[in-house]
Amino acid sequence: MSLERHIIHCDADCFYASVEMRDDPSLIGRPLAIGGEAKGRGVVATCNYEARKFGVRSAMPMAYARRLCPGILSMRPNMEKYREVSRQMQEIFYRYTDIIEPLSLDEAFLDVSQQVNRGNFDCASTIAELIRKEIQQELGITVSAGVAHNKFIAKVASDWKKPNGLTVISQVEQGDFVAALGVNKIYGVGKVTEQKLLSMGITHCYQLQEYDLEFLQAKFGSFGRRLYELCRGNDYRPVEQSRRRKSLSVEHTFASDLPDLEACFEQIPGLLESLHKRLSILDDSYIIAKPFVKLKFHDFSSTTVEKQSASYSLEAYRQLISEAFERSFQPVRLLGLGVRFQEPRSEDPQSDLFA
Question: In terms of Cα–Cα distance, which of 140, 137, 139, 114 is closest to 127?
């Protein structure tokens, strides 16, 4: 059954740092860490690849990062901005499938098996390439992806060619791919378990495959079964579609800024048609609560305006765009239209990691 699945694991490259470099190009090429203050007990949340060349890593004390890389720039995280980019990533994922399992703001599993993906694509790698291209073009950041027949291999593969890479592991290749992996790539193998395996002379999965299930369960308890299965590349877990979308939107970044309000109005019909097409795919349980618009201006500042209403007509969006434009009176580089949905009473409002 698991072999019939086609799963993509998408993982944004140094997510927080990439968003900051996108918004301030002067940061590009300079070592950058996002996290707490070096004077206190702040730690590095993430850093760019220039900083990693000096040995800087996530979860490292910021003070130690400064000693490793004296010229490093540090910034406090802007979680509101990162959550918004994460939501935009999710909207791109939803263009291809509804079966999405977010793991954090910057990574997710997608089930794009032929029977469930939108567009009836027969090649998961094609979808992965489209997603990576659209995220780079529309959001200005890069994403690495792994494509495989199960979650374990897809997640490992996404890290294989970072940054901005795509690794596809076919059913034929997965046996050799997994056998060559270090045991520290197995879910749940931390330092303690790795040391225990090293004491047995086991460093790679092909060595672990020599041991039967009974022996591993005796040695590692209930975790022994996971070791037995994953070292052979067996992972039967489905992508857990446990979250419900709270909004749907379409947006476009223009090659040349829209100079005035009338130019913005001219873009509404095309965007609204795209929004209607995407809404038509949803089931009847999604009830519109309010339309909203998003404008990003020439100076990269942005604003969102929404209104409590079930109407998402052309005129409704004209009014919202007028209000948004008046907040800055600058040329517009990005224009988006969307709707927010009523939330079912039974749904946990904290359940969406992208929200």
Answer: 114
User: pLDDT tens across 325-352, in order?
Assistant: 999 999 999 999 999 988 765 444 333 3
User: Could you tell me how far CA 140 lies from the centroid of its own chain?
Assistant: 13
d(CA 8, CA 107): 10
Q: Which of 50, 107, 251, 306 is catalytic?
A: 107
Residue 194 CA: distances (Å) to CA of 122, 179, 185: 38, 16, 10
Among the listed residues 79, 327, 81, 116, the one whose alpha carbon sits nearest the alpha carbon of residue 239: 116
Q: What's residue 346's pLDDT?
A: 43
d(CA 87, CA 81): 10
Q: For residue range 291-319, list pLDDT tens digits in order.
A: 999 998 988 888 999 998 878 899 999 99
In 10 A of CB 211, how many CB atoms?
16
Amino acid identity of 6?
H
Does the annotation count 107 as an active-site position?
Answer: yes
